[in-house]
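Quick note —
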Amino acid sequence: RESLLGPLIMRVAQPLPAASILVAISVFSFVQAKTRLDDQAAPKLKSYNVDTSSITVSGISAGAFFAVQMQIAFSSTIKGAAIVAGGPYYCAEGQMATALTSCMFTGIIDINGIERYIKAEEKAQTIDDTANLSNHKVLMWSGTNDYTVSQIVMKNLAYMYQTTLGINDTSIYFNYSSGHAWITDYYGNSCGVSASPYINN
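Predicted structure written out below.
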C-alpha cells in the first residue's frame, strides 16, 4: 500500500505552477457565475411609449459605422440616421487592416463590391429590404480638420447612400473646419479640435 500511495502523495504534495492554479480558479469561478445566471430568470423588458415611425440612429467614428450597419440591416424599423465621421456599410469587409486604412484614411473602398454584398444579404433575407431606404432621412457631417476619419471616406458613404441605395433626402455638411467630434453651437472644445470629450462648439 505504501509503495502505491507514497509516490501519489508525493506528486500531489508538490506545488502546482501558478498558471495552473490561476486557470483552475478562473474556470471554477466561471462555472459558478454561469450556474447563478442559469438559475435566474431573465428580467422582463419594460414597455415604452415610442413612436415607431420615427426611430433613428446616430453615431460618431466607430459609432457612426455601427449606425450605418444598423440602419441598412434594419431599414424597416429605422427611419433615418445622423452620421458623423463614419463610412460605408461593410467597409472593412471583416479585415482589421482595411478598417484601419481604407475606412479611415485612404478611402480606397470597393463600393461596387459592397453593393453586391448588400444585394446578396438582401436576397438571403439576413437584412431588410433595401427599398425601405428610399424613405429614409440622412444627415452626414465630416469636418475639414478631421484627420481621424478622412472626408474621402464620408464621401464614399454619401455616394453609396445616394447612388447605390437611392436615398434622396440627405443633408451633407462637409465644409466646416471641425475636428473629430460631435458638433454643437453652445458647448465644448473649439471647432477644429480633436480631443476629449470630442464635443466641439
